[in-house]
């Protein structure tokens, strides 16, 4: 049995729930042994003064690289939280990292991104016997994660890429990524990472396709906005299909009744963020005219969560920790169903650490209402080195 009184062996975790940025940074940095750290990843709550956090983190960490983004919630050692400054410190003994800021995202240039990422990959020297993966944190309001993710998958064909779109609570006003002591909007951060740990990437949601199909008959793909579904005003038709009125449409309704798109025999969620007064629907992932979609139907969220997190290595051991990117719409549904504590318990049991996102990236696809995780296990040479 795992000893739940201790934390992970291969990442250092600290947090602060102080509302003042300087106080929060001081409290979160204090437990860390800076001499052993290679880099730090920070996830910020929506209400915190991010520029003050960036400046003070840079000073408090004494030159240790710090990366991260704003969030729509944090997954801490205690489970779901909304007001925590969460720091994940990756030790030199097990991790190496190179970062690259991709900007601008809008307008996007896939050729420029491909060239930049290929150069970064070539310059990041490989460590014999270590494994390589990449993390991407993107401006969650850029509406460019689909092209960004597919480009990264093409260029980094031998390197698995995992990520999450930065959040802003439920405000949807501004989302930013952190690199070199500054936050950047209209940008994405790519971290190329090597580790001597074993790891496994995975993703899951809790929706199956229903028998109800719909066709996008008028849309603005650039803005991810749908004006007509099945030839009728989009909000009206969606409300009719899910059995409510347009006035009842809300983030909670969208979370419970997502729309699915089929890609390579797999269904991915295309979540709706809001309904406008003009009757259009705004989506959180790519959408286009003529696409045939399917209304999703939910299955038991706790069972799929526990099953999805039940990872084991070749020796049958559970992960030392799981880096998790969990869609904010999943959190909304979980809280609506009063399952917050149950899910937090499951995250605590599986040692999940991460944040709530405006979208998730895995296997070259940008998706919504999905949990994307990277499970880290002990090195093959043994649990301790």
Folded structure, characterized:
The protein has 385 residues and is of the alpha+beta class. It has helices spanning 21-29, 50-60, 110-123, 145-155, 234-242, 251-256, 301-309, 328-336, 340-350, and strands at 12-16, 37-44, 66-70, 74-76, 79-81, 85-91, 95-102, 131-138, 161-165, 177-179, 182-184, 188-195, 198-204, 207-220, 225-229, 232-233, 259-263, 266-270, 272-275, 281-283, 292-298, 321-327, 352-357, 360-362, 365-367, 371-377. The chain has two domains: 12-204 and 302-377, no CATH class; 207-298, no CATH class. It contains nine helices and 26 strands. Strands 14, 15, 16, 17, 18, 19, 20 and 21 form an eight-stranded antiparallel sheet that branches. A six-stranded mixed sheet has the order 1-6-2-3-10-11. It is globular and about 60 Å long. The relative contact order is 0.17. The mean pLDDT is 95.
Q: What descriptive keywords fit this protein?
A:
single chain; 385 residues; alpha+beta
Layout: helices, strands, pairs:
Blueprint: E1 12-16, H1 21-29, E2 37-44, H2 50-60, E3 66-70, E4 74-76, E5 79-81, E6 85-91, E7 95-102, H3 110-123, E8 131-138, H4 145-155, E9 161-165, E10 177-179, E11 182-184, E12 188-195, E13 198-204, E14 207-220, E15 225-229, E16 232-233, H5 234-242, H6 251-256, E17 259-263, E18 266-270, E19 272-275, E20 281-283, E21 292-298, H7 301-309, E22 321-327, H8 328-336, H9 340-350, E23 352-357, E24 360-362, E25 365-367, E26 371-377
Parallel strand pairs: 2-3, 8-9, 22-23
Antiparallel strand pairs: 1-6, 2-6, 3-10, 4-5, 4-23, 7-12, 8-12, 9-24, 10-11, 13-26, 14-15, 14-21, 15-16, 15-20, 17-18, 17-21, 19-20, 22-26, 24-25
